[in-house]
Every structure is written in C-alpha cells, then in structure tokens.
Amino acid sequence: MTPQTSSQAGAAVKAADRAHVFHSWSAQELIDPLAVAGAEGSYFWDYEGNRYLDFTSGLVFTNIGYQHPKVVAAIQEQAGKLVTFAPAFAIEARSEAARLIAERTPGDLDKIFFTNGGAEAVENAVRMARLHTGRHKVLSAYRSYHGATSTAINVTGDPRRWPSDNGSAGVVHFWAPFLYRSPFHAETEEQECQRALQHLEDTIAFEGPATIAAIILETIPGTAGIMVPPPGYLAGVREICDRYGIVFVLDEVMAGFGRTGTWFAAEHFDVTPDLMTFAKGVNSGYVPLGGVAISGAIAETFARRPYPGGLTYSGHPLACAAAVATIDVMAEESVVERAAHLGATVLGPGLRELAERHPSVGEVRGLGAFWAVELVRDRETREPLVPYNAAGEANAPMAAFAAAAKKHGLWPFLNMNRTHVVPPCTISEAEAKEGLAALDEALSVADEHTV
Q: Residue 168 — very low, low, confident or very high, per pLDDT cuts 50/70/90?
C-alpha cells in the first residue's frame, strides 16, 4: 500500500479531531494526536508521507499486523451475509469463534462468554467469581492494569486507578513478584517466588479467606512492565486458591493469542485458571471483541441459575468472523511459532546487546513479541530515568527518548520509565532489526540523562 500524501487532508482530519473527539487518558488541550493516513503490516504513516515502524501494535493488539487481507475479506464476507444479530441466538460466526477459542484455552475452559473488550471481560469474570463463591473480596496486584470500567479500574493497581478508586469495591491489592525491584529484598528468583507467595498467604490470612472470591493476575503483566513471573509462582497461587476455595482468574487480554510465543501465556507456566479473560489479539483488534473463558465448575453454577449479565453486542457477527479468520491465519502462517522464534533469536538477543552498550538500560525482560526495557538514571542504584507516574517537566527524559525514536521512524510504546517492545507477531526479522537500530539511536538520547 502506497502512503497517501496530502497536507490538506491531514489538516482537515486533525481539525475535526481537535474540535470533536474526546481522547482517553488525556488532558484534552495538551495533546497533539498524529493524523494517520493508513497502515499495513508492521507500519503506519501520516498524511505527510512519514512512515513509522509500529513497536506498539496499536495498543498491543495488532498481533497479525494491519490490514491482513484474509481477515479484511472475512469481515467483508460476513457483512454481506449477516452484519449483525442479537446475542440470544446461535449464529455460525459466534459458534465457530467460541469453538476455536475453546480448543486453544488450557484445561476445561470450554465455555466462552463474549464481551466488547478486555475491561468488560474482567468486569464479568469478577462478577462470575463473586456469584460462584458467594463472597465479595477480590485480590489483585499493585503492578497491574485490568481495564477502565467500574470494577476493572478498581482491580487495577497502577495510578490510573486513583481518580476512580472506591474503597467499598471490595478490592485488596498485594505485591506480586518483580525481582528487579523486589519489595521482598530477594536476591534470587527462588527467593522472590517464595517470599511473594508467603506475602500473598499473609494477605489472605488477614483479609479472611472466607471473604475472598477471587485472585486476579495478568499472567505476564503488560502495561505495568512485562514482568515474567518466576518459576513456580503461578502454580503456587493456583495451590493457594484451591486450598481456600478462591477463584483463580488469569487476565490474558494483552499476553494472549501468540503474543508471548504460545497461544496463551499460561502455557509457559503449566497452570490452568478457573476463569481467563481475553481480547485484543483474538482478532487483532480489527473489530472490538473480548471475552471470558469459563471452567466447567463455574459454568455449572449457571446451568440452571441465570447469569445476571449480558451485552447488546456480545459475540457480534463481524467481530466473531474477524476472530475466526485471525485464528485461522495464525494457524496457517505459524504466527505463534514465529513470535517465539522472534523473541528467542532477534528481539531478546538484540535488546540484551543494546543493554550492554547503553547505561540508561537497567534491565531487559520478556518473551516472544512481548518485551520491556527498563530505563534508569543510575544502573547501580536502579533509580528510574523518571520518577514514578511522572508528568510534565519531570517526564522530559522519556519525552526526549520518544521524540528521538520517532525521528528515526520508530513509534515506541512508553509507560513511566520504560519502553515496551511489542511489535506485531508477524514482523519480519529485517523489520525487527530495523526497529532495534532506531531504538539504539533513541537510547543514546536517554543515556544523556544518566549519572
């Protein structure tokens, strides 16, 4: 696809946006959104003809890249056949999408409740857990993000929760393992695992096991920093949940559908939750879709008791047709295996090589096409490049890093003092190396802010 170039058209798009679009997570007068003219594969471009390699996958959802012709064709075909229909009926696209997802989820997560996105999936997973157990409290990690609906934002641990925090929501936060910034003063992964599990046990004891409906964790936390849990941690949480009758929920909204080099990140840890949420990569975000994969025991709770929840667009035909086509493409083109290979042979080694040369890189971590680069002022003290939740002038070093990346044709994913490397799982090795070269240049700017 040839990039469009039309300054006038771009200006019109920008003017309409600024006049009428209210953007999420933003002070409206302080943002300057780029007017995008098109996208294909791993790239997008503006109306001036500037092309960017997308190391964000949108918001970590275009796992098969932009404009995959087979998925576009499937959406067009479904629109011609049955563009929409109410969720109470059985329709082919919805049934087939559910079947294909259930085939790939671990264990007996064979029932699929469809939502419009990840936050609604978390919202309904928490509701199911509370109704199934008859309990109200939910435990979640501080370093986490689960969505922006009422329950999901309270379950979230990062600062986006603060303006909407509701102490009566029954949510209790705890520290999950993160060895690089260990809250447990651990020196090894084994220590971090053991101490994190003991901390969770202590939290449960003081909160009252009989009051806790669910523990929800991102299998591998996404926006919070892509911290791969140490061996044994998730299995330990599974054992704790079983012992106290607590529902174990894994949030795979970002980590699922090939992102980590397996269909679901839970496969890396050989653990099966009671509920699993998904969205994003299920159809590469081509049409909004999310859902909850439900275990047999929880499904049985609602076999003769109505589930008190639903959505007008649950299992929308266009979204489900896109999911069917996306899963088929991922299987046909070995996208999951490609992501695993990419992480093992290109992204992982390449990022570690950059870490050796740039004093601003404190740690590199990740799997598949799911990586984080922790930027620091001082490697010895591990002081972050910018303060926690920095904004304005305090965030200037990260802003300078981002500007340098864009100058070299790379669109970066930034959160706090990190840049995440999360390109489409279909990115070629040559494209990935192109992105790493641009990242190399941008890190030289971050190096200027080290001590």
A: low
For 222-281, how does the pLDDT look when each residue is reduced to its tens digit (9 = 90+)? 999 999 999 999 999 999 999 999 999 999 999 999 999 999 999 999 999 999 999 999
CA 99-100-101 angle, to 5 degrees, is 95
Beta carbons within 8 Å of 366's beta carbon, 6+ residues apart: 226, 228, 343, 347, 348, 351, 372, 421
Residues 6+ positions from 416 with CB-CB distance below 8 Å? 384, 386, 388, 389, 390, 398
- Residue pointed to by tokens 């857990």: 129
Cα separation values, 392 from 73, 395, 443, Å: 44, 6, 20
Q: Please, are residues 304 and 105 in contact by the beta-carbon 8 Å criterion?
A: no
Q: Are 387 and 317 in contact (CB under 8 A)?
A: no
Average pLDDT over residues 8-15: 95
Neighbours of 102 (CB within 10 A): 15
Averaged pLDDT score across all residues of the chain? 96
What is the predicted pLDDT for the residue at 149? 85
* CA distance between the termini of the chain: 45
